[in-house]
Amino acid sequence: MDFSLTEEQKLFRDTLRDFVNKEIRPVAQEWEASGRYPTEIVDGMKEMGLFGLTVPEEYGGLGVDMVSFALVFEEISKGWMGIAGILGSHSLACWMINKHGTEEQKARLLPDLAAGRRRTGIGLTEPGAGTDLQGISTTARLGGEHSDYYIVNGSKTWITNARHADPLPVLVKTDPTATPAHKGMSVLLIDADTPGFTVSRDLPKLGYKGTESCEIVLDDVRVPKENLLGGVEGRGMQQVLGGLEVGRINVAARSLGIAQAAYDEALGYAAQREAFGKPIHDFQAVQLKLAEMAIKVQASRLLVYWAASQADAGHRVDMEAGMAKTFASEAAMECALTSMQVHGGYGYSKEFVVERLFRDAPLMSIGEGTNDIMRTVIAKALTSGKGVIG
User: Fold this and answer.
1) What DSSP designation does 129 have?
2) Do the Cβ atoms of 218 and 284 come closer than 8 Å?
3) CA 15-19-25 angle, 5° bins
4) What whole-number distance in Å separates Cα of residue 278 and Cα of residue 366?
5) Do 103 and 219 meet the contact criterion of CB atoms below 8 Å apart?
6) Cα–Cα distance between 299 and 25 in angstroms, integer?
7) What is the pLDDT of residues 238-289, one digit of tens each?
8) Cα–Cα dist 195/279, whole Å
9) Can you tell me whether residue 278 is helix, strand or coil?
10) Active site members
């Protein structure tokens, strides 16, 4: 049993850390506070090939293993979680296109997506349907008998990369009368310049700054039939659920990055901050907090890497990714709060990194499926016998 990274993975991690330390950390506080879009950082990620994480080498991507995939989101989130979000939705959509797209769709889209010449995201959530994706109301109907295009109507919300996604994979109902509902659901790849496709507004957020989260309106949007992902109707839910397993590893790794950063900030501050003539890390109350944080960080890391390695082995990882995402996201919230407590009053100041970590952490327990839903996914795997522990 080997819990260590390979030499190639270590080199990849060190390259990422160098990029984060040079290009992200120095500007994160200022740019996050001002709402400035991180164009230069995005350009740097393009140069590193990070937009091709889930794109095979034959299409110009990196085609990394899932442990290396997790490392990307862990390391970037240690510097600024919002930046990792730019890559997260893009990577999930690229995975879906590569896994389920037709040969024509892959050849047409993946090379540009891998290079960052195109970017993408995923259009799932609606104002009235988040966790219950079968409850979406966005519809796509054929324009007429023997028509070569769909007419799409509806709206989507909380869409990361919405202003840069081209195309945007959008979950729709191609047969609203289907029973069960998922049999009538499909994914359409909608080009950003299509008439009727409107990004109506950016949503104001507590944290997760640096990338946009938007509402989208689809008003009689005409989408060519060749933009139906996979070319067959009724497979949208299956395509999305597979992609969400990858997305949950991404969110789990982002959570790990936040938790690690919170621990690092607390440990460093406790060493230099003095009270009663000695560093506060000499006081048992602070030591207990540091120890508890370290336990949660390392337990999160093992769960995240385990889920990723299971995916690399070719297994379904709905249970494993759910466990990693649930535990790590809750560890991120707990570590951010504990780090703030170690910092005392300074932890409440926007001049200190921990305040941003505290605002970024809660989203991780919501994104890619709430933790309550994750627990039901885990329980179903266990009770069905598909998932085994011990």
Assistant:
1) B
2) no
3) 140
4) 40
5) no
6) 25
7) 999 999 999 999 999 999 999 999 999 999 999 999 999 999 999 999 999 9
8) 62
9) strand
10) 368
